[in-house]
From TrEMBL:
This is Metalloproteinase inhibitor 3. Zn(2+) binds at C25. Residues 25-144 form the NTR domain. Disulfide bonds join C25-C92, C27-C119, C37-C144, C146-C193, C151-C156, C164-C185. InterPro entries: Netrin_domain, TIMP, TIMP-like_OB-fold, TIMP_C, TIMP_CS. Its main location: secreted. It comes from the Eukaryota. Coiled coil: none annotated. Residues 1-16 form the signal peptide.
Length: 212
């Protein structure tokens, strides 16, 4: 009986640990603009190789990338050759395909290395909307002084002039919502921020209160 109980305890502990690891990666939804503004590095790149590095309990995956364009991070690292991520998806590791797609990749720099993960914004380039691509080039940098506040339950109100209320949470999740795909929160005259959409470059001299 003692041996059976010992086996049962070990089994339950192992199962609980495995379950904990699988569910360990939980990310808070973030608008693409915030993902851009909060990242050290934002690039468009193609993965041309990968190598499993013996770092940590599960290892670290090192992706070799061919950088197509840099949108943020010139002063920190003008050219990115490697992207590092956890090898395990349960620890928020990103799985990128080699020699298939161009990706938008955001990440942070630590000790001279660029790290990314499931909680960063990464996407196949051809899946980005035209508004998101324009945001990377022009609009998102104009809004880094703004605050995008998620709205999970109605009613939601801005508490300061530099806030934009993000309502995608009411019907969608994360980057898949309409605001995330088509809007940027732009800083206007006197520090006011408001949502912007359209094809022409935004006029920073006026307040555009157009709400999605």
């Amino acid at each position: 009986m003692t041996a059976w109980l010992s086996f049962l305890v070990v089994f339950l502990c192992s199962w609980s640990l495995r379950d904990l690891v699988v569910e360990a990666c939980t990310c808070v939804p973030i608008h693409p603009q915030d993902a851009f503004c909060n990242s050290d590095i934002v690039i468009r790149a193609k993965v041309v190789g990968k190598k499993l590095m013996k770092d940590g309990p599960f290892g670290t995956m090192r992706y070799t990338v061919k950088q197509m364009k840099m949108y943020r991070g010139f002063q920190i690292m003008p050219h990115v050759q490697y992207i590092y991520t956890e090898a395990s998806e349960s620890l928020c590791g990103v799985k990128l395909e080699v020699n298939k797609y161009q990706y938008l990749i955001t990440g942070r720099v630590y000790e001279g290395k660029v790290y990314t993960g499931l909680c960063n914004w990464y996407e196949k380039w051809d899946r980005l909307t035209l508004s998101q691509r324009k945001g990377l080039n022009h609009r998102y940098p104009l809004g880094c002084g703004c605050k995008i506040r998620p709205c999970y339950y109605l009613p939601c109100f801005a508490t300061s002039k530099n806030e934009c209320i993000w309502t995608d949470m009411l019907s969608n999740f994360g980057h898949s919502g309409y605001q995330a795909k088509h809007y940027a929160c732009i800083q206007r005259v006197e520090g006011y921020c408001s949502w912007y959409r359209g094809w022409a470059p935004p006029d920073k001299t006026i307040i555009n209160a157009t709400d999605p």
